[in-house]
From TrEMBL:
The active site is at T151. This is Asparaginase family protein. The record marks D150, T151 as: Cleavage. One of its GO terms (molecular function) is hydrolase activity, acting on carbon-nitrogen (but not peptide) bonds, in linear amides. SUPFAM superfamilies: N-terminal nucleophile aminohydrolases (Ntn hydrolases). GO terms for cellular component: cytoplasm. InterPro entries: Ntn_hydrolases_N, Peptidase_T2. Substrate binds at R179, T180, G181, D182, T202, G203, L204, G205. It comes from Lactiplantibacillus xiangfangensis.
Length: 317
């Protein structure tokens, strides 16, 4: 059985490399997802996930995360959790519980503490500076408070044919306290069935959750569509329907992987993602919306990678 993995955004790359190596050594798809996402959560320069994530309007880093086992449909999720080092690990543990498997706010944070998960202030000095700068800009320039909402999502397939999916995010920058997007909601931000495949989403959660798109992509793959065809067919018509009936649509980017290790992507913005399998090392690709409800995908350049590394570490004025 082939192994394969796909993750959202350039930030998934290093974690995805580790996840693939874990599965090559015989570890499970669930282990690979957790390894990959905790790598992203721990890196302080990714400002929309974990440590270094941008805070809410009150200056608190509130995080959402989820995990789903494609063999059993077991789901665990947390929303509005704070001061916990790796929310996705808490979500995975919760997936083993039949009751109380989705916890929010102080309940999620207390559960993490009682179960031995590492407590940590997730607000870095850099993130606090970005928050303070945005507060000034809101007051002096009238800028929108909302900027940035990228979720890391990972879908994996292991040597036994088992599949898993996980998500993690600090959510919308400057969000109202208690706000939750799609990332913790099963069917919206993620879904997985080992007999078919899995999907994960990133973008504006308030709009993504209107379409249950991850479930729809997996359902379409179950009818025989390839992951790419399923992504295209689920995402682009819904974006147009949302524009027509709701009046607007935020950013949508979705990834999918099927039980054969084939992958697909659909997006209405410029979107990077990482992908790899047992014969192809992890690489970063760029997707853009194409013509007639299709997606164009191409490799990114080393120059792009270098510029990205420089940009995310640039000094904060």
């Amino acid at each position: 059985m082939a192994i394969a993995m796909i993750g959202t955004w350039r930030m998934a790359y290093e974690g995805l490399e580790k996840g693939l190596e874990a599965m090559k050594k015989g570890q499970s798809s669930g282990d690979a997802v957790e390894t990959a996402i905790t790598t992203v959560e721990d890196y302080p320069y990714f400002k929309s996930v974990g440590y270094g994530g941008l805070p809410n309007a009150n200056g608190l880093v509130e995080m959402d995360a989820a995990f789903m086992d494609g063999d059993t449909f077991a789901v665990g999720a947390v929303a509005g959790i704070s001061d916990v080092k790796n929310p996705v690990s808490v979500a995975r543990k919760l997936s083993h519980d039949h009751f109380n498997s989705f916890l929010v706010g102080t309940g999620a944070s207390e559960y993490a503490a009682l179960n031995g998960f590492e407590r940590k202030s997730m607000l870095t000095e850099r993130a606090q500076k970005i928050w303070a700068k945005r507060k000034r800009e809101i007051e002096t320039k009238g800028l929108s408070p909302y900027d940035g909402h990228d979720t890391v999502g990972m879908v994996s397939l292991d040597q036994q044919g088992s599949m898993s999916v996980g998500t993690s995010t600090s959510g919308l920058f400057m969000k109202k306290p208690g706000r939750t997007g799609d990332s913790a909601l099963v069917g919206d931000g993620y879904y997985c069935d080992s007999e078919i495949g899995g999907a994960a989403a990133t973008g504006l959660g308030e709009d993504i959750m209107k379409g249950c798109l991850c479930y729809e992509i997996v359902r379409l793959m179950g009818t025989g569509l390839s992951p790419q065809a399923a992504c295209d067919q689920a995402v682009y018509p819904f974006v147009e329907k949302l524009k027509k009936r709701y009046g607007k649509a935020g950013e949508f980017s979705l990834i999918a992987l099927n039980k054969a290790g084939e992958w697909g992507v659909a997006t209405n913005v410029e979107f990077t993602f990482a992908v790899g399998d047992e014969t192809h090392p992890a690489k970063v690709m760029m997707a853009n919306p194409g013509e007639n409800g299709t997606t164009t995908i191409e490799p990114i350049t080393q120059a792009w990678m270098d510029a990205y590394a420089k940009r995310i570490k640039a000094p904060i004025d």
